[in-house]
Specification:
Layout (H helix, E strand, L loop, with lengths): L18 H22 L4 H18 L10 H14 L4 E2 H7 L4 H13 L3 E5 L7 E5 L1 H11 L8
Helix pairs in contact: 2-3, 4-5
């Protein structure tokens, strides 16, 4: 049974649905919510593409040189968070650690530091309590946007 919001049952009939039908409706609502959230962010595709390019170049460099020469997990995490947000995707703590190519303990240590600096915040996934989402704060997003657009930073 397809659960397009235009063809949902009347409120009085919801009690007659089976558990799989209700699960499908919930999934449909979540997808709709995620699509609306992504649309509301109005990403700047040029900045997102720049961040993704920098990240890809860092991975390409690691294919030629020992990765320990250029270890900057926090920078990789910020690039991935920014470009993913620009693409309308959210990242979990485990996604970020994998993308930065670091062990989970290192990833958590850097996430804690970035959180203390006000660059990121964490949000528990209401659908899966085992997962925690990580988003850039307004401050973190502004810093990344400023950097990617070539502005001089406040520390310059």
């Amino acid at each position: 049974m397809k659960h397009d919001f235009r063809s949902w049952p009347r409120p009085d009939d919801i009690g007659k649905l089976t558990a799989p039908q209700l699960d499908a409706m919930i999934l449909s609502l979540r997808r709709r919510r995620d699509a609306l959230v992504a649309m509301s962010k109005r990403p700047n595709s040029e900045n997102g593409a720049t961040a993704r390019h920098i990240y890809a170049e860092r991975r390409r460099r690691a294919s030629w040189f020992d990765a320990s020469l250029f270890s900057e997990p926090a920078w990789d995490m910020l690039l991935d968070l920014y470009s993913s947000a620009e693409e309308g995707r959210r990242l979990s703590i485990s996604d970020i650690g994998i993308a930065a190519c670091v062990p989970p303990t290192t990833s958590l240590r850097w996430l804690n530091q970035m959180e203390k600096l006000g660059l990121i915040h964490r949000l528990s996934d209401t659908a899966d309590r085992r997962r925690v989402w990580v988003d850039l704060t307004d401050q973190g997003r502004a810093a990344m946007t400023g950097y990617l657009t070539g502005e001089r930073g406040p520390r310059a």
